[in-house]
Amino acid sequence: MIEATGLRWILTIVFAGTGFFCLYRCLRQGPVTSRFGDVLHVAMCAGMVAMVWPATMIFARLPQLLLFGFAAAWFAVAAARGTDRWHPGYHALMMAAMAWMVFAMPRAMVGSGAATTMDMPGMEGMAMALPSAGGGVPADVVVVALVLAIAFCWAGLVFLARAIDGVRVALPPVRTAGWGADALMGLGTTVMLVAML
Fold first, then answer.
1. Bridge-partner residues for 117, per DSSP?
2. H or E segment at 119?
3. N or C: which end of the chain has fewer CB within 10 A?
4. Closest alpha carbon to 187 in 14, 3, 53
């Protein structure tokens, strides 16, 4: 999925950092529902780190599907029952998108030729991707990935603007950092989706 090792490490740091923030926020005083949401975010961030490194997908695919599916349903119920529908609805969409990515990733990798490589004779360390029999990433995967990438990029920028405004007017640091974490999750997810294409 992501070939550049440097980008893998950047995304690992982003998702690990947001996961640690959610864990910190979970340990503070707060409603049980908020704490459970933070626990789900910690698990999501761990799943995203696993998704960045393709070797983990061999054994972690089914647990990730179950985790993201459950989390999407939980946040959808929270959005339907709460007064703030936008924020939990955003997280429900993100969790559903993660479940879709886990499900669609094998098709995207085979279609892009990422799953098949050939060493080049006489050039140690050099390899080239062989074209797949499918002729590219399936059209349905491309369309869904692009729509989700645009949505999460937009949402990530909105949360980033909120975080910057929060710093300017000295809002509570945890709330401002929470918006920053939402921004990082949204923009990091955008990169993951674009990498599928």
1. 129
2. strand 117-119
3. C
4. 14
The candidate with the shortest Cα–Cα distance to 49, out of 158, 184, 175, is 184
Q: 176 near 163, Cβ under 8 Å?
A: yes
Total residue length of the chain: 197
Coil, strand or helix: which one is 138?
A: coil
How far is 28 from 75, CA to CA, in rounded Å? 20
Could you give the CA distance from residue 57 to residue 16 in angstroms, rounded to a whole number? 17
Measured distance between the N- and C-terminal CA atoms of the chain, rounded to whole angstroms: 9
pTM equals 0.80
Euclidean distance between CA atoms 191 and 186, whole angstroms: 9
- For tokens 């995203």, the residue is 48
Q: Write the pLDDT tens digit of every residue in 105-146.
A: 878 777 555 544 444 455 454 444 444 445 588 898 999 999
Quick one: tokens of 35? 């704490």
What's at 92, amino acid-wise? A
d(CA 167, CA 28): 21
Alpha helices in 28-138 (DSSP H): 32-52, 57-81, 86-112
Q: What phi and psi values does residue 28 have, to the nearest 5 degrees?
A: -80, 170
